[in-house]
Recover the amino acids of this structure.
């Protein structure tokens, strides 16, 4: 499928798909005219990439963990540890946001007219 078709099928922008390819998260083949062509399996892969990005993982982390997630045979304890590390990072961010929210809520209460 062409890049526009993949974008329509996944809801990802063409620009995002090009970025995923640049980051080596997604692969395409080029036609003689230079157009990108993706296999049907790219729809599922883009959905997985979008999920991992939404979970707060960076594209470089996704690059590291994607093979372990997509290929059952190479799942290792390393993957679980790496994901635990990312979960810890997200939990720290949530705690910081919670503290920020408490401060803001206090300010609202102090200065509400």
């Amino acid at each position: 499928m062409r890049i526009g078709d993949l974008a329509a099928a996944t809801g990802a922008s063409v620009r995002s798909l090009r970025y995923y390819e640049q980051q080596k998260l997604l692969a395409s083949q080029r036609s003689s005219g230079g157009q990108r062509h993706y296999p049907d399996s790219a729809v599922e892969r883009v959905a997985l990439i979008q999920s991992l990005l939404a979970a707060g993982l960076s594209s470089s982390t996704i690059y590291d963990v994607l093979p372990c997630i997509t290929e059952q045979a190479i799942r290792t304890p390393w993957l679980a540890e790496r994901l635990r590390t990312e979960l810890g990072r997200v939990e720290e961010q949530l705690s910081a946001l919670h503290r920020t929210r408490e401060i803001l809520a206090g300010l609202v209460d102090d200065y509400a007219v």
